[in-house]
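Collaborator request, handled under Task 6.
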Amino acid sequence: MEIIFLGEILIDLISNEDLTTARNFQKKLGGSPLNIAINLSQLDIETAIISKIGNDPFGKFIIQNLQKYNIKKDYIQIDKNHNTTLVFVSKSTSSPEFFVIRGADKFFEIPNLNFENTKFLHLSCWTLTHEDNYSKTLKLINLSKKYGVKIGFDPNCRNKIFSSNKIDIDRIFEVIKHTFVMKPSLDDAKEIFGPLPEERYIELLHKFGVKFVILTLGKDGALVSDGKMIKHIPSFATDVVDTTGAGDAFWTGIYYGLLKNWDLFKSAKFGSLISSYVLKNVGAITDLKTIKEHIKEFENND
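Structure tokens returned to the collaborator:
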């Protein structure tokens, strides 16, 4: 596997209305690690994901749909005691409102892993929310680093997903120390560090030892830093229907480019392009066939 993901697989139930009054929901595959894995699989990158889902209709729906995307399912575990995690989402052109019913995803186990040909282990903040799964995450980080695998960390941290209903900053800082590439949104950075100037977030993450930092700014694009220089990457978005999965799409371009030995800035630009496709649709999963037409353009341009 070129990339192994660790984190939540879940069902997004998306409504056009405020969640307080919503009556109708669209059922979509969800979970940030799964979204990125599916996107990369569409671009012919071999992926696997470590997660746990329930032995219920939603879990069966997930397994049936994964067959379409050639995601390696060996590390996906079935929980007979806990249901598949559900996230109710209010469709939005900005940061979406969401409500979580946590289930099987927080009870994952570390499987017997084969890190042969693995370049990255991607982590989600959801695996840090409870003491038990935080300990498992650290074990997996240490194991992967023995094989030279680089860590990518998505700090999609919110109070409501932690067992104490408050972000555990110490856990996050410990994971950041091991991280090679990190892509916080501006909202993520504010949740972790509080309100600061944008470039200060980048400076702090580099001080922790993160080599590549991409700070996404919504409609204003992203600030991208390789530790030597910071460049602004504009947004390609022209039509925003739903922001669900836009950050995961950006991750897709970053990983694709780095795996193809593009520099960070070209990779981030490709991420911005993929994100613009996802923003045109409801839900995080979009057909990326037409994206392939742009890959040669990126390969031939600095």
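The cover message to the collaborator said: "The longest strand covers residues 47-54. Residues 131-146 form the longest helix (16 residues). Please let us know whether this matches your experimental observations."
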